[in-house]
Amino acid sequence: MPQNETQQVVAEKGAEAFPVSRIGSxxxxxxxxxxxxxxxxxxxxxxxPLPPLDFWWHLKMGEVIATTESIPRVDSFSxxxxxQPFVVQNWLGELIYFWTYRLGGFPLLVCMATAITLAGxxxxxxxxxxATRNPRxxxxxxxxxxxxxxxxxxxxxxxxxLFAAFYLVLEQYRQGxxxxxxxxxxLMVFWVNLHGxxxxxxxxxxxxxxxxxxxxxxxxxxNRALSVVQIRKLLLILSLCVLATLLxxxxxxxxxxxxxxxxxxGSQQLVAEWRPPRVTDFLGFLLFYFPFFLALLTFxxxxxxxxxxxLVLFFSFAVFGLISIRNAAWFSTITYPLLARYIPLLxxxxxxxxxxxxxxxxxxxxxxxxxxxxxxxxxINLVLIFAAVLALATQSPWLRxxxxxxxxxxxxxxxxxxxxxxxxxLTGRIFHPQxxxxxxIWRLWPQQRSFVDGRVHxxxxxxxxxxxxxxxxxxxxDIVERWNIRYLLLNKSNANLKGRRSIEDSGAWSKxxxxxxxxxxxxxxx
Length: 526
Description:
By secondary structure, this protein is mainly alpha-helical. Among the domains are: 155-250, no CATH class; 415-523, no CATH class. Helix content is 59%, strand content 4%. The longest helix has 41 residues, at 91-131. It is globular. The termini are far apart. The model is unreliable at 1-25 (pLDDT under 50).
């Protein structure tokens, strides 16, 4: 593309500059490529088991809210923080979990989580389709985004969907495609009762206002930035969204809760996803560093450079993503549509050595290849889609357990120990690893209460430090006497052999249950 033509494209960037990919009316290969990321999202949603952490206590809370028709205000799930003030900010999402479970059990819960994850991905995918007419680029970018997507069954999945919805509405408004700003305050009413990341919706609108305002201030005559009237409308929507956040059981106090959770030292110390991503860690590289460096290279060598708003969004969420691995999801959602927009505009100069490869040249061509949209190819592609759908069906949460014998629950879930404790009516206090706490709440509360669980911000830092010293060898500390522990439930995959030997050699504890996941000791009564 000549430089003057490129400049004209950028000057008119919007609905005409980056039209939705137009693919032939028949079932061409391009459509198969576009469907590949969708199949990958569904496949990942089906095969990942129910997580042992940050799910089960939410499901139990949904049951408590549904049966008591009230939202608890203090902790009653643990005996170590019993009576402490506890904000149930995710109450609506927890109710949805329990209603879904009551309707269709764990398979329907897995299916629901997959559907929510897919919906959020499709909204981001829509932005990729808006960004370029090249379906190959969209398919590859979408596939990379799908690889890094980790929407498991947890309240954060609601935020993935709503954040993508905010991004889509704001970006389409900025590009002059559609004005659907009115829906954002409505979505915020739900978001503030589903998950604490609602604050990111406000931040996203604020970034658009600030960046577009700066663009207008730098060059008042530009026709590429939002007008003053449009910016004022964004400010109005931001104000309405702020008001919408007050429609929750805590009112304005919800902001204090979010601040407490985000700044909680215990979470940052004990929970891996609250730690910064590391380039040497596969998950950190896949979720953050790979899209970050790929975007930097793309922006550097693109014939057209990102505008101020795009750079503000990219670097703001890059800094946010560097804070913790859990923030990488928001950075990825922002970045992949930008990659779809600017990869087709890469300067051919540095890429000349690759131009001799036919497959590389075809990647940057727009439209369908000759012959790919013929009726014969369409029928073959239809067969391929049918085969893919059939394969997904065999991985569904209803069929896969029957076909493979695999459980929908994660391997490290202490199902057998919970069965044993429930069947034998054990009521004494149990010391257990944090990983087991959530599931024990779901299975055994109120017969048993947890020692520590996924609600890390509920526990003091001193207590968590005490727990970390004791989890390797409970008898090496005074935790047994301090909390009047009757039973020791150890995770066999992480148990310190020396700690287990000290328990067995002490003569004060009897092993009463063991399976491949856990081992349970009972204190002998003298």
